[in-house]
Amino acid sequence: MTGFLEYSAGASALHRMNPLVKLFGATALALACFLASGLPLLLALLALGLALAASCGLLARALRVGLAVLAFSAVLATLQVLTTPEGAALLPLPFGYVGTVGVQRACATMVRLVAAAIPFYLAFTVTKLTDITDAAVKVLRVPYRYAFTFASAVRFVPLFLNDMSAVMEAQMARGVSFDDVGPVRKVGMMAPLCVPLLVSSVRKINSSAIAAELRGFNLRTRASGYRSYPLGALDGVALATCAALLVAGALL
Length: 252
Prior knowledge:
single chain, mainly alpha
């Protein structure tokens, strides 16, 4: 997988950066997106995220993530257009009108959410989760049990989704149709499926806890990790750039 090229000679600059710097950079870019109000700056931040994705060969996957976020943000943008009757009238409505200001803010909302999602996707794709937790323990002095809890929570999300998909497929094989009902009825039909998902989750958590105990979880300390995560010149440049973008987002 692309994320396993960490620190290798042939990997891109984004792969070779310190894990914490990548996480901080993604957070700074996301905050800059939410602080910025001008559409040109938001488009520039979106272009920067896509350029970073292209530099590590993840442009196509980043575009798919952006389209998924765009579909969600379109709902919020529609509500914003309908509830912001400001500026020149473009379309009259029974309860107001669609104004130019509402359209501009809706476009900014869609671009903002997409531009904020892509950096986090890249940071977690090109970085091993173990590198993030180990760097947090070694550099930030985070207790290992808290770092392990965060890593376990992230790892269990796709497992829970797969279990839920398997339970739904089993019910569909028994004649249950989830596509021919309304959203309210669908939620009511999916609620009982949470019981087997909960049972399966508890079993996985229990087995994971036993495995961690057998591997000496309570003996793990900050010095147990064998890898070091020094800050290089590239990390310094990335931190300065992200800080400048954060300030620009706050001022502009």
